[in-house]
């Protein structure tokens, strides 16, 4: 199997998708100038993603077939933006297809990359690097092109997605010896993972923390338009902090590490309520990346200690969904606070504090406490 093709598919998908998540709220808002439309599109996206991810867990299709199918759906979604970017009905269809494609492709790629035990660590390390490189610069590139010529940006997305689909089709023809998981085995390991106390606590804490991330994705691009700030620069600093924490080897699952990360996330939400100055906002974006990146790093390390490869795969798949779930449920959870921008970010702070309270309440159940 040619891992380079898998890395290529990952790069093109994450490069385009990072631009899309940055700009989609703005694209939708510009149709009718309604935040309600943003809510509909985001909920549609996350719902279809969850359906696709559940489909993947039960192994109804081979991994390569899921990659090809997901790439085709992704390309069709980009084509919809080229043809009908001013239609809410077609944006609804596009978000549905985007969710299905993102739900199918990344887990399937991870399955194939981890199939060879001798190259597993190397392949996953390269995969994380490819995703990081694709994500850190694409938001600011997409933002600049979008403000100059949106149609040109959408056209480039179609080109990149088409190349990705061609690579996926070439990959489909190659022989692979590592796809062999039964439905019974998937069901058995899923029960073992979700019954794990540490995993349950990790999921709950990350879920509430990700509501703030969902709000950032859904509303910050529109809010920044009112302040003449750059959402691309904000994401650049955020991803820089996030990626930095992935290279901190000594970070581990401990009371102080998780509490500090949750404190950073809460502090960032407070900064959006108090400050509008560019330097301060971008600085706290970096702090946000440190906190959010730390949470995922420490919980991923713990999932990595699960006994079998199947359990680890399911654990990673579910935890990696949480940021998307945050995007989907943030508009619903923030309805009571959706009065003005300051109140909206106060709602973010509220749910971040809830995450801290839940953590303090549940930590004794499975935390390796350093106190």
Automatic annotation (TrEMBL):
One of its GO terms (molecular function) is transmembrane transporter activity. The chain crosses the membrane at residues 12-32, 38-55, 67-84, 90-113, 125-142, 154-172, 193-216, 222-243, 255-274, 280-301, 313-337, 343-362. The keyword Acyltransferase does not apply. It is a multi-pass membrane protein. GO terms for cellular component: plasma membrane. Coiled coil: none annotated. Signal peptide: none annotated. Pfam families: MFS_1 (PF07690). Keywords: Membrane, Transmembrane, Transmembrane helix. It is found in: Cell membrane. Its main location: membrane. This is MFS transporter. It comes from Lachnoanaerobaculum gingivalis.
